[in-house]
Amino acid sequence: MGGVPARRMLRDLRANIGRYLALTLLIVIGVFIVFSIVGAAEVVLIGTEDKKSVNMVEDGSFTVFLPLDEADMAELEQNGTRIEEKFSLDINAEDGSLLRMFRSREDIDLIQLDCGRLAESMGEAVVEKGYAAAHGLKQGDSLSAAGRCFTVTGIGSVPDYDQMLAKLSDTAVEHESFGLIFVTDGQYCDIRDNTVQTAEEYTYSYRLGSENDSDLKERIKGLDFDYTKVEDKYFRETIDDALSRRRDIEDGVNSINNGAVKLSEGLSVLTDADKELRDGADRLFREYLSQGSSALSAMGGNAELTAENYGEVLGGAAAAGSQQAAALKDSLDSIAAFRQGIREYTENAEKAAEGSAELADGTAELEENTQELLDEIFDIEIHNLTSFMTASDNIRIGGAAGDVVVDKSAGLVAGIIVLILFSYVISVFVVHQIEREQTVIGALYALGVKKKDLLIHYIAMPTLIAFLGGAIGFGLGLSPLGIKTQLASTYEYFSVPEFDIRVPVYLIVYALVLPPVISAAVNAVTINRKLSRTALSLMKNEQSAGSYKQFRLRSKSFTRVFSIRQLIRESRSAAAILLGMLISVLVLMLGLNTFTLCYAIKENNTADTRYEYMYFYKYPEKQVPEGGEGAYIKTLSTDCMGYTLDVTVIGLDGESRFFTARPEKGVSRAVINNSLNERFGYEKGDIVTFSSLAEDRAYSFTVTGICEYSPGFTIFMDIGSMRELFGEDEDYFNAVFSDRELDIDEGRLYSVTAKKDIEKSSAVFIKMMKPLMLTLISAGIVILFVVMYLMMGVMIDRSAMGISLIKIFGYRPREIRQLYLNSNLIVVAVGALAVIPLAKLIIDSIYPSFICNVACSMKLSYSWYIYLGIYALLLVIYLAARMLLVGKIKKITPAEILKNRE
């Protein structure tokens, strides 16, 4: 009896070839979507990781004012750290495009050649692949630049320029205007020494040994450095300006100290004669007293005049009428006053000398402490290091891998959605098949076929179909239509080698194992329950009493009543259609959300950029240039689902011409842009916290308002409060916004960003995400069509006897379509009204996880006509499936009812 089920399986395959093909197509589309999108992302992620060891990708890089000498290099490489020169010159090609020229690398960031060989002699060069493609250059072609003609010996890429940005501040890759060439050491020196080019950039790459990035950075800062040898006039100007203010204070303190020392020394000399003055005054006074005593004796007196009694003795004689005694007393009073004045003068001079000595000691201490105070106030780090960047902070490195993270997330979610749909469709499909073949199953039971054999029989075909669909989807994913198509935009935009197609195990399991396993599991559960009935019950085709609901409809229209009863009877298939609609619209809206986001970024970033130019200073001027608006810009960071994203803080001075934000004064008050509001839900009054990675410190702000400014994550502060918060001078600014080009020396600037640059970078999103969007939208449409076709086909099959019967009663084809197909129109038309907003709600809730590595606005709302278009699309897909099923109804003959009579 084992051959009977096998022969029936083949007959079933021939009889239901259309249904099985549709089911296979559903699985193929689902697996193809996931495999191609996620597979392409994994190829980039795995390939990038693998190439790190092959190309010896740097751990970081740094630039210096003056090249390091051998002693410096030896000191920095003591801990096993490897350092390689990566000096460069910017030269112009014949067509005006910019080429950055390097020597061929030997140890770090090695060139990955797509074809050809490295430059080996003068006049040879390897050209970066993106620039070569944009300019139609191939191996053996000629390239003119810097007055030299180069033969292209190879085309390739380097890992430190994965994202080909001329400046780190650039917002988009432009292969037409910027590229790299790699030449021999001799060629490099020839162009550097014998042509007029921009200044050489002294860059070094490093791979760490037994230390971390911070340790290496501090050791670089500690190297001996003579800043007077630096040729950058603005650097010298900044240092001299800062040091001149320190020197002014030092000179003033030195003058005070020198004056105090001189005063102390002068008073010391003066006090050396104090004793002689006092002794002379005492002798003079004694001599006058002696002469006075002689005069008093001549007047008949006999007293000896002393300093203590002369006033009393002479005063008495004067009182007695002696004018001579009175005159003598006045003379002695004058001499006594002089003597006392000398004493007071010398005493005060000694005190002044002592005070001046203490003053000299104090000013000496002041001079010593002033040095310490100035070291704190004028904390100027004068070292050779101009920039230090780890590989993780360098947007040129790993740009392609970071870009495909969104694709991977979207593909995995789509994969889960498709698996849910597939599981449900399989269950409905199998239940219908069992119910349709109940009599045959009962007969096989009666003939002695065991339940286990039947279970295997009914599981085998769907499982085989599931495996076949998964295998085809797997094959298509590996074909040029799949992974390679998804990779095309990555290879076009980024400068990466063509990675080997390496598929992770979980994707192989998803494509080849999960579909048959899910099919077998769902079938086993469903079929086991259906096969648990007796052979007689199955042969009589008995229906469960619970399958039909008894209810009364208050309508005199037979067509309406019949259609409603038919819809209730086939509620399981109707539910499958609704679920299929939901799943399909989820996939569709995943693509539409991506398009909406990219389009909104393009439009809003451009609209919200009201300035024409932004100048970001390396060495700020004293005054804001005429026609410009000064601002203070600083970068902080925030965490978004495990990714660290930049938050730009912009300090504005009053009402800005270029920003709608009106920040209030206060070091903890800020206005946030709509991007932060849309992504994190921050509202007015909330307290938000961002961190400074360089300072290892967090800053908290109270949100005082939300403004429309889409580019990146941005907060706005009052510039005075911002200067106070971050410890800058009261007139400090480092950025200028303008509505026209300003005449600012490039040597002062880090970068210049024009509005056209913002427009270009915003448009890149649509270009990069186009393959993903088209795949998701197309797949959603195909899946919905297949699900509708399958489920409506199941409903018709289940109603085959009823259709056969009413054909006997003389119903015309149009009337039969009204009875059996119009109810589905109600399901689709009414269900779509619920499915569309539900799908939008679900996708919007999970979409932030897809863009967690991108700092951008998140405007996902659709215009009303988009919703109307989706609704119309669902109806069109229904009508297309309905047209195909009309032929199925025509094939049902009146004899069908007679075949199934007991």
Textual characterization of the structure:
The chain is an alpha+beta fold. 57% of the residues lie in helices and 14% in strands. It has 26 helices and 20 strands. A 9-stranded mixed beta sheet has the order 16-17-15-18-14-13-19-12-20. Strand 7 and strand 8 form a beta hairpin. Helix 2 runs parallel beside helix 14 and helix 24 crosses helix 25. The radius of gyration is 47 Å and the shape is elongated. It starts with a helix and ends with a helix.
Task: Identify the strand order in the major beta sheet.
Answer: 16-17-15-18-14-13-19-12-20
- Give average pLDDT, whole number: 79
Computed CA radius of gyration, to the nearest angstrom: 47 Å
Shape: elongated
Fraction of helical residues? 55-70%
| Secondary structure tally: strands | 20
The low-confidence parts are none
How far do the termini sit from each other?
24 Å
Tell me the layout of helices and strands.
Blueprint: H1 3-15, H2 17-54, E1 60-64, H3 70-76, E2 82-85, E3 88-92, E4 98-103, E5 112-116, E6 124-128, H4 129-134, E7 142-145, E8 148-157, E9 178-183, H5 185-194, E10 203-207, H6 213-221, H7 233-271, H8 274-298, H9 310-319, H10 323-377, E11 385-390, H11 399-436, H12 438-446, H13 451-478, H14 483-493, H15 505-530, H16 535-539, H17 558-569, H18 571-608, E12 613-617, E13 628-640, E14 643-652, E15 669-673, H19 674-680, E16 687-692, E17 697-707, E18 713-718, H20 719-726, E19 735-738, E20 749-754, H21 755-798, H22 800-808, H23 813-820, H24 822-846, H25 864-891, H26 895-899
Parallel strand pairs: 4-9, 6-8, 14-18, 15-17
Antiparallel strand pairs: 1-10, 1-11, 2-10, 3-4, 5-8, 6-9, 7-8, 12-19, 12-20, 13-14, 13-19, 15-18, 16-17
Helix pairs in contact: 1-13, 2-11, 2-13, 2-14, 2-15, 2-21, 7-10, 8-10, 9-10, 11-15, 11-18, 11-21, 13-15, 14-21, 17-23, 17-24, 18-21, 18-24, 21-25, 24-25
